[in-house]
Amino acid sequence: MFDINNILRENIKNLKPYSSARDEFQGEASVYLDANENAFGSPLEQQYNRYPDPLQMEVKKRLSDIKGVPTSNIFLGNGSDEAIDILFRSFCNPGIDNVILVPPTYGMYEVSANINNIAIQRMPLTTDYQLNVDGILNAINEHTKLIFVCSPNNPTGNSINRNDIETLLTSFNGLVIVDEAYINFSSQQSFIENLTQYQNLVVLQTLSKAWGLAGLRVGMAFASNEVIDVMNKVKPPYNINEASQQLALQALQNTEQVNSWIQEVLQERDKLIIQLQSLDFVLNIYPSDANFILVKTTDARGIYNFLVQHGIIVRDRSKVELCEGALRITIGKPEENSKLIETLKNFK
């Protein structure tokens, strides 16, 4: 039975969070003399002299409408990377606890674990890029606090079997983090709809991919009230700046544009796969539910260097476990995809 107090670090249980000036006052005032801001304004057309809402409530209200999740179940971070780091700092004791990773997967899980001095147990995916559920369950011990599952997975692009993730949720008394950065490009149902069913579920999403806001650095975590309360207690007081909040809120009004882009990406993905399959140095293109494809080739490094010489940048994943010989290629605009194919036709 999951109990957050069994995995929460003792120092976090006793942590008194920083109380900002804006935390202590609710509502509107005509004179603000509480936060040592510059009352004269900013040397910019847009005024940023006041600290932003520390809990980003207007953005969360809009996300609540879109996602169908109460604002109390939403955490916003400086990219999903901040949410990942806060989960480590909240629930994992340095030098004592461990987490389970399932490579090949998103590299920041390992980086955050190393930064926080948390041991890593690796349980590689199967050859068809699915979870080794029995291996994961056998690897769990009394010091295992977190399991990270990226679905659709980066760099492989495929969705992880839903039943396998649910098995982890029901069998593990720590947190299962399902990273859905690419969920907008997938027909797979989001695990957000299962938050009330699993108290140990954390779902990560982002505005960097389908929403086209990578430069603003706004990531989302969805979880139970008690997990979100812990994350809000640990985060810096003003972790999402005012410009990012305003622009994210503006962007979140344009769901039709985003949905249109998603459909175009999916169409371009299908076209690009067909075109790549005609090239003799392409050995395999793995199924993708993301805005990229993983392509196994006869000479990944040679192709990568050739493309760089022609001003085209893809990602060489050939040294990643289970991705030998593979390039990860993001789906671009039609003219970018066409340039990629025309250039590859000249590779010898």
Automatic annotation (TrEMBL):
> Does the keyword section mention Heme?
no
Q: PTM N6-(pyridoxal phosphate)lysine: at which residues? A: 209
GO BP field: L-histidine biosynthetic process
Q: What sequence ranges are listed for the domain Aminotransferase class I/classII large?
A: 45-344
Cofactor or coenzyme needed: pyridoxal 5'-phosphate
Q: In which pathway does it act?
A: Lipid metabolism; Amino-acid biosynthesis; L-histidine biosynthesis; L-histidine from 5-phospho-alpha-D-ribose 1-diphosphate: step 7/9
What InterPro entries does its record include? Aminotrans_II_pyridoxalP_BS (IPR001917), Aminotransferase_I/II_large (IPR004839), HisP_aminotrans (IPR005861), PyrdxlP-dep_Trfase (IPR015424), PyrdxlP-dep_Trfase_major (IPR015421), PyrdxlP-dep_Trfase_small (IPR015422)
Cross-referenced CDD domains, in alphabetical order? Answer: AAT_like
- Say yes or no: keyword Transferase present: yes
What does it catalyze? Answer: L-histidinol phosphate + 2-oxoglutarate = 3-(imidazol-4-yl)-2-oxopropyl phosphate + L-glutamate
The EC number(s) attached to this protein equal 2.6.1.9
Which is one GO molecular function term here? pyridoxal phosphate binding
Keywords linked to the UniProt accession: Amino-acid biosynthesis, Aminotransferase, Histidine biosynthesis, Pyridoxal phosphate, Transferase
Principal EC category: transferase
Q: Which NCBIfam families match?
A: hisC
Write out the similarity annotation: Belongs to the class-II pyridoxal-phosphate-dependent aminotransferase family. Histidinol-phosphate aminotransferase subfamily.
Q: What is the annotated quaternary arrangement, including any partners?
A: Homodimer.
What is the protein's given name? Histidinol-phosphate aminotransferase
- Species this chain originates from: Mucilaginibacter robiniae
